[in-house]
User: Fold these one by one.
Assistant:
Number 1:
Amino acid sequence: MIDKLKLNIMSETDNSEKLYNEARGVIIGGVSRNTIFRKPYPHYASKASGCYIADIEGSVRVDFANNMAALIHGHAYPPIIDAVTEQLRKGTAYTLASEIEVAFAKLLTERVAGFERIRFVNSGTEAVMTMIKASRAYTGRAKIAKAEGTYHGTYDFAEVSQASDPSNWGDPESPESVPIAFGTPESVLNDVVVFPYNDIERTIAILDRHADQIACVLIDPVPHRVGLVKGTSEFVEAVYNWTRKNGALLVFDEVITLRVNYGGAQEKYSVTPDLTALGKIIGGGFPVGAIAGRADVMKVFDPHESKLLFPHSGTFSANPITMTAGYKAMELFDRDAVLQLNILAQKAVNQIQEAIKLADVPVSITGAGSMFRMHLKEVPPKTYREAYQTKEAKTVINELLDYMYFKENTLMINTFSCMLSTVMGQKEIDKLTQGLLNAFKALKPKIDNLNK
Ligand SMILES: Cc1ncc(COP(=O)(O)O)c(C=O)c1O
C-alpha cells in the first residue's frame, strides 16, 4: 500500500511538528477544526487512497474515521475522481443552475420516501440551521426542542447542551440549556428546550410545558455523542404524535445516519419526519448539506410563492463539483452496497466483542449500520448522561486512540468510534480487531480501574 500511495515524504526535519509550529503562527491554534487537533501536535496528511491514509512522515494507516463519516467510498474513489475531473474542465461554480443538480435531486428524492422536495447547501451545519429556520418560517414559532448531548453542528440554537456536563446539566426532569460558546445570548438559551433522549415520559412532559411555542423537535436517529444508541421506535413515535397534536414539526438530523440504511435511519420508523437535514456522504468527499422533506413545508423556500416566507441563497450551494461527486457517491452506494457494508460492520462488531472477552476488559460497543462506538463500561450506555466520559475515562480513551494510531497504524474517530467505507474488507477488520485486542491488553489495568 505504501507503494500504491507513492508518498511525497518530506525530509526528517520537515515533519508534522515543524509544520504545526509554523501553522500556529498563522492559523489560530494551528488548526481550522478542533476535531483534528491532537496533543502535542496533529499530523499532516500527504496522500490518501481507498481506506489508507499517509502522513508526511511516511506512516500509512487504515482510516476508520473517513473524514468524520463523510467518505462512504474511502479516499480518491476512482469513479468519483473521473466524474469530477471531467466536470472541473467545464467549470466549478456558475451563476446559473446545472443539470447535475436536478439529476442528483431526483436520485435522492427517489431514494427516501419522505423527501418530496430538496434544497442543497454547503455543510451539515448549514443544513440543520436552514431546517430550523424553515420550521420557524412554517409554524411562526420561535422555540426548538433538542436532545441533551446531541451534536448538530455549530448554529447557535443547534449547539445548545451539546456538551453539558455534571456540573451544569441540571435535573433530568428538566435539563438545563447549556451554552457551548461564551457570549451565547440568553435569548438563544431561552428558545431551546432540552430533553433527555429516548426518555418518553420526561420528554413529553418537558415538551408539554412549551406546547404552543415549539417550531420543531430535532432528532438525530442515532446520535453519536449520546453514545451512538438508536432512537427507539416508541420514542420517535411518541415525539411524532406529540408534534401532530401540538402543531410542531418533527425534523431529523441525518447528516451522519443517512448511511445506516438505503433510505436512511428514518426508513425503519413507522413515522416520517417532516424535514431532514443531510450532509457528509452525499457530498462524495466535497463540502455539502441538504434539506429535504414535505413539499408543503419546503414551500417556505419557493420563490413562486406570493409571500416568500424564507428567502434563501448560498454562493456555492449545489455547485456542480459537489453535485457530480455526490451523485456518483450515492449512485454507487446502492442497496447492495449498503447491505454489504452493514454486514462487514456487523462482522467487525462481533470480532471486537470477541477481543473484549479475550482481553477481559469492561468495554461495550454500540452502533447502527456501518458505524460503531466503544465505551469503557461493561454495560452499554443508554443515555447521554450514561455515555458521558469523565476526565479520567477520556484520558484512557486518548491512550487507547494513541496506541491504535502509533502502534497499530489505525486512525479512529476521537470518541473511540469507527465509520466504515465500502472499500474496506475483511483484511482491514482483522487489523482493527487485532489492534484493539493488543490495545485492550496493554491498557487493561487502567480500563479496569475506571470501573472500580
Ligand atoms: C449529526 C451531525 N449534524 C450536523 C453536523 C455538522 O455537519 P458539518 O460539519 O458538515 O457542518 C455533524 C458533523 O459532524 C453531525 O455529526
Number 2:
Amino acid sequence: MNTIKTTCPYCGVGCGIEATVEDRATHRVTIKGDANHPANFGKLCSKGATLGNTVSLENRLLYPQIRGQRVDWDTALDHIAVKFNRIIVQHGPEAVAFYVSGQLLTEDYYVANKLMKGFIGTANIDTNSRLCMSSAVVGYKRAFGADTVPCNYEDLEQAELILLVGSNAAWCHPIAFQRIRKAKENNPNLKIVVIDPRATASCDIADLHLPVKPGMDALLFNGILAYLQQNGLVNQPYVDTHTDGFELALSEAMKTAGSIEQVAAGCGLTSEAVGTLFDWFANTDKTVTVYSQGINQSSSGSDKCNAIINCHLATGRIGKPGMGPFSFTGQPNAMGGREVGGLANTLAAHMDLENPEHVDRVGRFWGSDKVADKQGLKAMDMFDAIATGQIKAVWIMATNPVVSMPDADKVKRALQQCELVVVSDCIANTDTTELAHVLLPATGWSEKDGTVTNLERRISRQRPLFPASGEARHDWWIICQVAQRMGFGKAFNYQSSAEIFREHAALSAFENDAEHQLRDFNLSAFAEIDTLGFDALQPVQWPVIAEQTTGTARMFADGRYFTANRKARFIPVTPRPPVNSSDTDYPFTLNTGRLRDQWHTMTRTGLATKLNAHRPEPFVEIHPADAERLKLKARSLAQIQSRWGSMLARVEINPGQQVGSLFVPMHWTDQNSSHGRMGAVVNPVVDPYSGQPESKQTPVNIGSWPAQWYATILSRQPLQIAAAEYQVSVRGDRYFRYELASTEFGKDWRTWGRALLACVEQREDDNCWLEYSDPQAGYYRTAYLPERELRACLFVGPDCDLPESGWLGSLFAKSELSRAERLSLLSGAPPKGEADIGRIVCSCFNVGEKTIQQAVQAHQFQSVADISACLSAGSGCGSCVSELKEFLPKPT
Ligand code: SF4
C-alpha cells in the first residue's frame, strides 16, 4: 500500500489529504486528513472525506472524440490547431477564446494563459472564477495596488471579533469554519457576527445575526466608517502614514450612512442591532472580516469589498495577528488562477495588461512580441460574443457554463450555434460536453500532478494516486500539444508540470525588485526548483523568496502596499441596490448558493452516495408567511420564474428566509434533473469593474406547480424513464432513486410500472410482485422482488406525501427480505421494532433525523455533545452540528 500526500479538489480551504491506495486496478483508496497540513491539521469535511468514492471510472471521458466519433489524439489536436489557426487568420485573434476553471491546476492554468495572452495575442481567456471572486480581486487591487490576501487561518484563531459577511462558511468552507468554532470554544470573548439576508448554518455560533436587506452590505460598512470618525476611533496616524483617499471615502460614507438610524432603515435592520455591530467593530482591535460570494456576486461587489477594506484601513487593522479583510474564495485553485492571470483583465504573475512595462516584461520573458495589451472579454461578454458570432471558436476547460452561468439558456444557445466548441474535461456527460464538437479527455483529481493555492495564499501539491485512465492526458499537456501544432512549439516544449512550475516561479521573480517596482507575487525561491524538489514541495504561503523560503504568513505588516507610492487607497463607495429590483410581476428576490454536501455541478460529489442523502432534490427555501399566503405546501413542487427562465423545485419552508426572499441551491443540472438548473433563472447583470454576475439577487415569482401525480421509484438498476415532466435522479447506496411528477393526468400505473421495473419475461409473474392500488384516490404502489430480493419499487400518489427513501433504500443492501419486511414494504415504513433512520443529517456516520429524534427523546439529551457521544453524529467533520441543535429541546 502506498500513502500519498495531496490536496482536496473542492473548496478554497485547501485541506491536505493522505490517500492510501489499496488497489490500483479498481481505484480503491482510503482517504484521511493530513495531520501535518497547516490548513486542516487532519480534519476533513464530508466532501473531502468521501473523495475515495468519486475516483471510479464511472462517467469518465476516456478518449478524444470529434462530433461524437472516437478519434486518436493526433487527429483531435490537429483538428483544433488547424481550425483555431484558420479562424485567427480570417477573423483575427479576437475571434477565439478559452473559458477555463478554478478546478485546473496552476501549471495547466499557466500554459493556457501563456498560449492565449502570450502567443495567440488576445486576452480572451476567462475563468469560472469570474463568477466566484473577481470582485474580491478588484477590491484588493484598488486598495492595495495588488491582488493580495493579507490574512491567514491563524488570524481567525487570534481574532476577538469575526464578521462573516455574505459567507455561509459552515457549509461552503467547512474546515475553516470548524477552526472558527474551535477558536470560540477556546476563547469565550471571541464574538461572531453573521451578516447575511438568511439565517444560515453559520449562525449557529453567531453572537449576532444581521439579516441585511439583500444587496445592502456596502451601506452597513459605510456606516461603520462614519461611526469610527464620529466617535474618534479612526487610527489617524496609520491613515496619515500609510493610506491615501480617506477624506473622500469618509465624505461619501457620512453622506450615505451618517447615522445608525439611516443605516438601519436602508439595511432593513433594527437600530439596536446596527448599533451593536458598530460598537463591537469600533472597540475590538483584533477584528477579521471574512467575506465571500454574498459580497462578490453583486452588481456592486467590487464596491462592497472596498467598503469593507476601508474600515480595516481606517483602523489600521491589517497586517497584524488576528485582523484584516479576508476574502474567502470558492474554488480549490481560484487563487492559482489569479497568480497566472487566468482572468481576462489580468496578466501573468500579478502583472497588468494595461501597464506597458508589464506587457514588455512578460513579452521578453516569454520570448513573444504578441503579448496582449488590453483586457479580453469577461465571462458574460465572452458568451455574448459567442452568441453574436464575434467569437467563432471557444475551448472550455474543466467547467460547465451551461449550468453555472447566469441566463444559462442563452449560454446554451450561444454554444449551439458556435462554429467550434472544444471541451476538455474528465467527465463524459455534462450539460456542456453535450454541445462540444471536440471532446478531449483530461486527467481527474486522482491522476493530476501539480499545485493549487488555497484562500490564504498557501501553495500545496496535488499528487497523482493513479496513472491516467484510458487515454486521458493532463490539461497542460493537451494545451501544449495544440500550441505546438499552432506553430508555438519552442515556448511550449514542457516535459513535466515541475518544469512549468519552475517557469511560473521564475516569471514571478523576473525583474521583481525595488528598481522595477516590487510585486507582491514572488516565488523566487522556486525559480530553479528541480523535479525532486517539486515532488517534495511542502505547503507554503507566497511570497516565497530566496531570503525567506518558509513563505509569508501575513502581508502588509510594515504598512507598505504595492501602489506607486506604497500607500493603500481608500475607495469612496456609494451604496447601490441590486440592478433589478422586485416588482409586482416578480415580487421575490432569489438568492443562490452552495449546499453542505455537494460541489458545483455534482459530477463528482454526485457519485458519493453518502453525499446525496443530505439534500437529494432541488429545493426552494421560502419563509412560512410567504408559503402560507401562496398556499405552498412543504415538499410540493413550485415553479420559480424570472424574466430570463424558470425552474422547478421542492418547497422547503424555512423561517431563516426573509419574507420576500427565496433561496435555491446551485448544483442541479440537466443530467440529473429535468428543471433544476438555477442558472437559467439568474439575471445576466454584472459588476461594472469586475464583470462578476449578480447571482444573489434576481427578481422572480413563485407559484405552485399543478402536479396531478407524484411518484418515487427506487431501483437496483438505472432506469430509462420517459414521459415525466418533472424528474430527478439520485444515486443511493446500491440503488437509484427517481422522483417524478407531472401536470398530465395519470396513466395505467400497473402496465407502466411493470414495464419499467422488470424485465419482459417476469412482468406478468405475480409471484414476483407486491401491489396495492386505489385508483379512485390516485394511489398505486408496487414492488418487484423475485426470490424475495428487492429489485425495484414504485409509489404513486396524488400529492407529495410519498414514503421517504431512508428505510426503503436500506432494503437494497439485503439479498432477501424477511416476511415482516415484505409485509411492510408497500407502506413505506419499517415493521414494528425495526429502525427507520430517516433523512440523513450526519453524512460522516450516516445518522438520520429519525434516529436522532428518537435518541434525543429517549435519553433527554440536552446538548450536541450528548448526541455525539451516543450516535457519533457531529463528531466527524462537524458540518452538521448546527442541524443537530435543531433536534434539542428549545430553551424555555
Ligand atoms: S473544507 Fe472540505 S471541501 Fe474544503 S478543502 Fe477541506 S475537505 Fe475539501
